[in-house]
Amino acid sequence: MEESPRTAPLAASEPPAASARAVAAETVAPSGRAGRWLALLRDRDHTRGALVVSLVVLSLPAILQSLAGAGAYQIVDLYFLGQLGPVPTAAVGMTNQALRQVPFLLLLGGCIGAQMTVARCVGAGRGEAADHAAGQALLLGAALGALTATGALVPRPLLALVTSDPDAIATAVPYLRLTFGLMFGHVFVMLFSFILTGAGESTTPLLITLVSTPVAIFAEYCLIFGNFGAPALGVSGVAVGLACGTAVSLTLAIWALRSGRCRVHLRRRHLAPDPQVLRQLLGVMWQPALHMLARTVMLIYFMALAGHLGTKVQAAYTIGLRIELTLNMLAFPIANACATLVGQNLAAGSRRRAWRSIRVAYALEFSVLGSCAAFLLVFRHAIVDAFTRDPAVAAIAAEYLMFSAAAMCLHAFYFVSFRALQGAGDMNSPMLISLTSALFLGAPLAYTLATRTDLGPTGMWIAGLVYSLTNTALTVGWLAYGRWARAGRGQPPLPQRSAG
User: Fold this and answer.
1) Predicted TM-score of the model (pTM)
2) Is 29 within the bounds of a domain?
């Protein structure tokens, strides 16, 4: 078979950065002033030029995407739940913030591996390899979506892991079935966003989110409360409404990938199962997946402890955690952009620029999360009162947000550090640090303080903060040691198409 020009070996005289610019230039260039700005954001070469500009170009559209998707949707969704009462809120919380976190964070780990692989291919000027890796990553995502759907067959055993309240279980069963059964679309859309970020583009996912989020919110408004002639599905309307928005995202994402209107052009050959590339992807996906699973273990354990302390504690934890995760998701794109810059610049042979990317990302991340933490600390009572009418739930949730504000300042350094390590190909270190901190410190300390002292839920919040502090200190320390930046360290081979 004749080799595609985009997979041909790099010429000895052609630096990887120059080849990467050539790959970006192959994308379809929109016309007009708006098109020129879009092309500037989409096609910028991140292996040269001002790092602040590269970080902003990569992270700002993703932040706006989080504001529209994770931010606006999550807050409006939480408001709708607050109108239904503590039991429905706890039912959604134990499904979304606990049980669904297992497949979700496994997916996030897979997304991180796919992003790192695509970023390295683009940095080395291997555009066809990047497209092929993207297609194979989507195949793995399809497998995860099918596996997750099996959870819809056993809702009660799953819910029994996090609560013993029969009312909460009865309310959550139909919601869990719909959420797990319809997660396939969410898997694809999330992979799409990370793959494009690895290729150096975050504008297309933003544009898709701006279209799909209003659809999801309006659908929920109709289906939860029975507005505009729709059936009043209650909690189940949350899952169906989200599925409507996801269907729009899925349709637009497939069109963008197939039409070549973004920096990844997916063709039929890229979706043919390639055992060699699938093995390579799995080799860089399982470590970040386990890393994310450590956080999942903490969330499930905390949700179960909260359920042990009462439904109101569980509802309060759901509200506080949803607010915390929403704000963290607004800042995570900066760390994500840093991972892309580290991966692309290491592949292009510029270790010094990779180091500088991390320092600039630290400053930007702390400015964002530090501001969010200050806002949360000052206005936590007013924020919580918007989502619950129960004074006891509001008081517990406000206390949680006080500890959460302190943890956010640590997250500014933790997010950038572990994503930089992963972008450099060091998947093992952040995984081992996170698993060790969660299993041997966070979970045991939470249990001891919450059940063996008079602290109750306050003991859980203290344990969570200690876990965050330890996790951050160890991860930043390993990053500063610099083993990841030494030649040949932690860099898996670029994916190659199997012969034939």
Assistant:
1) 0.71
2) no
